[in-house]
Design a protein that fits this description.
Elements: E1 22-23, H1 32-45, H2 53-66, E2 70-74, H3 77-87, E3 93-97, H4 102-110, E4 114-118, E5 120-121, E6 126-127, H5 129-135, E7 140-146, H6 155-165, E8 168-172, E9 180-181, E10 184-185, E11 192-196, E12 209-213, H7 216-226, E13 230-232, E14 235-236, H8 247-257, H9 260-278, E15 284-286, E16 293-294, E17 300-304, H10 312-321, E18 324-325, H11 340-343, H12 352-357, E19 361-364, H13 372-387, H14 389-396
Parallel strand pairs: 1-18, 3-4, 3-7, 7-8, 8-11
Antiparallel strand pairs: 2-12, 5-6, 9-10, 9-16, 11-12, 13-14, 15-17, 17-19
Helix pairs in contact: 1-8, 2-8, 3-4, 3-7, 9-13
Length: about 400
């Protein structure tokens, strides 16, 4: 019996459901008139970088929204992490999850630190404080938590571990802008948190990031370091680097802030629709959030269990054929990437939860580039794939 046209799959010879690709992390675009007006102001001032008025206003607006004392805008979040590590004077080892974008580890390794990969709590997919306690040594200088998918770490337990061992605690909050934990905005935990304003994030400045801290001395030192260590025109007080945000990025950030609440509302509606349509599928769960957290809803993450009718990689293959460019985050785990795979070949032995999770996770498109009809169509593809699982396994068993 032929498959109905609305259930046919491109991977089996049908026409793709989407003519143009649906990307994970497709940028949210602000009102172009709002952005252009600010760019024109920058041109008229001929002030394009070096902590200009647009970047200063952006920093003030971010600090106000998050309730944090200091926001230091940076060219990107990776540089923000590097600056924080140096400003804290870190040496030796930094404990962090492997289940994160590899840039987290790279930022520490560039500073000469040794990332010590720690396992995660499978319920939150963030670093497990119990496992952190097990890998602290005399060489440990800091714990670097990651708010994966904007899901906050167990900040209270991590703070207790850090205090007990006299080490610094800071956070890679790249995906967690405007998220909250226990009523407190991300940006207010640890000694510092670093958010990303990369084009794929809920709020973007084309490319950018920010260091957030409530510690005055750390903020002063970090800001100085982002401008080559200059204190004033002729006085250099520290080893610095060029990590400044440009005025065009500040203009983009200000324009994006004007629509951020609307973007989050779109994200929330898309996630609710995905959850409604997909959560009943056997072996599939859609990432949710804890009651004590307020997310930005910017990530739609599926976990495909081993006993599901289709495995994660085969489902991804089906979706990509339909022009739905789903992603395997954070596959295969930072510990399996260069240079860590050769430097720490046995790191995976202590990461059973991470190893299992990287084989289950699949991220789907969301954001303002998507419509509710697009979400329904993607869910229809997943439904159809599960209905035809036996056929797909038989015909695609040898596919890469």
């Amino acid at each position: 019996m032929p498959v109905p046209l609305d259930r046919a799959l491109a991977v089996l010879g049908a026409r793709p459901r989407f003519d143009t690709p649906k990307h994970v992390g497709c940028p949210n675009i602000p009102d172009q008139a709002s952005f252009s007006c600010r760019i024109e102001e920058a041109f008229n001032r001929r002030y394009l970088t070096n902590e200009g008025p647009l970047v200063q206003e952006f920093e003030e607006r971010i600090a106000e929204r998050l309730g944090v004392r200091h926001c230091i805008a940076t060219a990107n979040a990776t540089l923000g992490l590097m600056v924080v590590a140096r400003a804290l004077g870190l040496e030796g080892e930094v404990i962090m999850p492997s289940f994160t974008f590899v840039g987290t580890a790279h930022a520490m390794r560039w500073h000469g630190l040794r990332p010590v990969f720690c396992d995660i709590d499978p319920r939150t997919q963030t670093i497990d404080p119990v496992r952190v306690e097990e890998v602290v040594t005399e060489q440990t200088s800091a714990i670097l938590g990651v708010h994966v998918w904007g899901c906050p770490c167990d900040t209270e337990a991590l703070s207790e571990v850090a205090d007990n061992h006299g080490v610094a605690l800071f956070f890679d909050a790249a995906p967690a802008f405007d998220c909250s934990h226990l009523g407190v905005k991300i940006g207010n935990f640890g000694v510092a948190e670093v958010v990303s304003f990369h084009a794929t994030k809920v709020l973007n400045t084309f490319e950018g990031g920010a260091i957030l801290t409530n510690y005055d001395d750390l903020a002063d030192h970090a800001r100085r370091m982002t401008r080559f260590g200059f204190e004033d025109e002729d006085l250099v007080l520290a080893l610095g680097i060029n990590a400044k945000m440009a005025e065009a990025a500040g203009a983009m950030g200000l324009a994006q802030l004007e629509q951020l609440d609307d973007v989050i509302a779109v994200n929330q509606a898309h996630l609710a629709r995905y959850q409604e349509r997909l959560s009943a599928l056997p072996g599939v769960s859609v990432l949710g959030y804890r009651a004590e957290d307020t997310p930005n809803f910017h990530y739609v993450v599926l976990e495909i269990d081993a006993d599901a009718p289709l495995d994660r990689d085969l489902l991804k293959h089906v979706l990509v054929a339909e022009n739905v460019l789903a992603r395997r985050y954070f596959y295969p785990g930072s510990h399996r990437m260069a240079p860590y795979s050769s430097e720490q070949p046995h790191a995976g032995d202590r990461l059973p939860q991470t190893t299992a999770l990287v084989d289950r996770v699949l991220q789907l498109p969301t954001g303002t580039a998507m419509t509710s009809d697009d979400v329904d169509e993607i869910c229809s593809v997943v439904d159809s794939a599960f209905e035809q699982a036996d056929t797909l396994r038989e015909r695609l068993a040898s596919s890469p």
